[in-house]
Amino acid sequence: MTQIIETIDVDVPVTTAYNQWTQFESFPHFLEEVESITQLDDTHTHWKVKVGPFEREFDAEITEQHPDERVAWRSEGGDTAHAGVVTFHKLDENQSRVTVQIDWEPTDAIEKLGALVGAGKHAVKKDLENFKEFIEKTRHETGAWRGDVPR
Q1: Which of the residues in the chain have pLDDT under 50?
Q2: Chain-centroid distance, C-alpha 49
Q3: Residue pair 83/103 in contact by the 8 Å Cβ criterion
């Protein structure tokens, strides 16, 4: 199992950062490898991603979600099993910390090599930098889902 943990501070209130993160269909604006996400219902999404020349599709289930605190998920189906959590921490009234933890199991030689050289860690770090740029530029979320999903 490979684990990636990355953190970034963003200059928006924690509620703004959290609300934007609940807008899964907006992820292609800041997650470079995500082509599209379709929200199926409150706790299920369908993802299309492209990593280099490889295209993959999978579903994900939100396994826990608490407003302004965390969103946890796990993949369902697809070629690569993964799970993760994004946590949100209020630093002050206008700044928050976003931490992403992803656990995944590389399945083929390409994924194993990528994990070995830290390609996933680099991608998550870049995606968080893109999220920071996106949310700080807009200064407000594009929507919000404030529902609670107990573990």
Answers
A1: none
A2: 13
A3: yes
Q: How many domains does the chain have?
A: 1
Cα 10 to the center of its chain, rounded Å: 15
CA atoms within 13 A on the CB side of 12: 23
- Look at the block and give the residue holding tokens 């965390």: 70
In a domain, 150, yes or no: no
Residue type, 91: L
The structure's pTM equals 0.92
83 is a domain residue: yes
Q: What is the pLDDT of residue 114?
A: 65
Determine the structural domain holding residue 31 and report its residue range.
Answer: 2-138
State how far Cα 99 lies from the chain centre: 10
Residue 151 within a domain:
no
In angstroms, rounded to a whole number, what is the distance separating the alpha carbons of residues 13 and 27? Answer: 19
3 state DSSP class of 27: helix
* Strand-strand pairing, 34-41 and 44-51: antiparallel
Alpha-carbon torsion, ordered 72, 138, 140, 57, to 10 deg: -30
The two tokens of residue 24 are 């899964």
pLDDT score recorded for residue 107: 76
